């Protein structure tokens, strides 16, 4: 048997080379993005001035300017707006995640190397990579141009982007399944659907549910950002107030967005604990 020392030396050399390569990428990125900590420190007063314009948040219900002039506001008070748009934001995230998960589950099974032949899983993996390579905001722009303003472009953008990401994760989970039950059912003459249902699904179902909930958290944040391109919801309301320089109202809606995300995140945590 050959000595193990050369093999250990080779592994150490490969790890050193990998660490050097990664460090080189970080330095390259630092220089290329003109990272300057002193410039960031110098920008502190401007950041403080921006935050000062947002304080205190506007918590009024009146339809006129809160300064007592009696001038009618260009938009309703943020709390009134939030009562309507929070529900729309949740609906976009929930429906987009549900549609994306259903499609991703099918593609994930077809894209798993241990469940399908090469000529099936390889093209499926390429298709999923192409779907997740398109930024969700570009998908939203496309659907806004095609369908107009409203929540539907956001639902479709989130669903398509979720297909690419969840499909990849689902396929990887299926590839980690213990092949023993699959081989036993295959020798017993079970068909492909039966083997997936009884040999693979029981092993991967908890993690698939957990990944879906994690994606829902991400989609909720993205559904708020998509308001910048005309998708209905909290993001569009924030952009409308920002456009008229009503920063106290922007602060109110940002706080509401954070609270909604926090509540959904805590619900997801408890559901994931129940699934374990």
CATH fold name, please?
Answer: MetI-like fold
**Gyration radius, rounded:** 25 Å
Percent strand: under 5%
CATH architecture: Orthogonal Bundle
Mean pLDDT metric: 83
Q: What is the helix/strand order?
A: HHHHHHHHHHH
Helix content: over 70%
- How many domains? The number is 1
* Silhouette: globular
CATH superfamily: MetI-like
CATH class, anyone? Answer: Mainly Alpha
| Structure annotation, total helices | 11
Q: What class, by secondary structure content? A: mainly alpha
Distance between the termini: 45 Å
Largest sheet: none
Number of strands: 0
User: Which consecutive residue ranges, at least 5 long each, have pLDDT under 50?
Assistant: none
């Amino acid at each position: 048997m050959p000595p193990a020392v050369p093999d250990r030396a080779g592994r150490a050399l490969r790890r050193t080379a990998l660490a050097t390569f990664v460090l080189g990428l970080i330095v390259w990125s630092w220089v290329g993005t003109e990272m300057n900590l002193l410039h960031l420190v110098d920008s502190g007063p401007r950041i403080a001035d921006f935050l000062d314009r947002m304080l205190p948040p506007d918590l009024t219900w009146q339809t006129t300017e809160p300064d007592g002039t009696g001038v009618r506001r260009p938009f309703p008070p943020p709390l009134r707006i939030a009562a309507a748009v929070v529900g729309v934001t949740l609906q976009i995230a929930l429906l987009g995640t549900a549609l994306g998960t259903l499609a991703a589950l099918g593609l994930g099974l077809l894209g798993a190397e241990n469940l399908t032949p090469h000529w099936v899983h390889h093209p499926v993996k390429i298709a999923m990579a192409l779907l997740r390579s398109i930024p969700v905001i570009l998908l939203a722009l496309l659907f806004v141009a095609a369908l107009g303003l409203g929540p539907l472009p956001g639902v479709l953008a989130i669903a398509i982007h979720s297909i690419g990401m969840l499909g990849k994760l689902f396929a990887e989970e299926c590839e980690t399944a213990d092949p023993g039950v699959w081989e036993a059912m295959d020798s017993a003459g079970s068909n492909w659907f039966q083997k997936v249902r009884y040999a693979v699904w029981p092993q991967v179902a908890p993690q698939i549910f957990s990944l879906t909930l994690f994606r829902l958290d991400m989609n909720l944040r993205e559904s708020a950002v998509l308001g910048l391109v005309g998708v209905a919801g909290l993001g569009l309301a924030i952009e409308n107030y920002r456009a008229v320089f009503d920063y106290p109202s922007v602060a109110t809606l940002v706080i509401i967005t954070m609270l909604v995300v926090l509540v959904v995140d805590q619900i997801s945590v408890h559901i994931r604990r129940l699934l374990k």
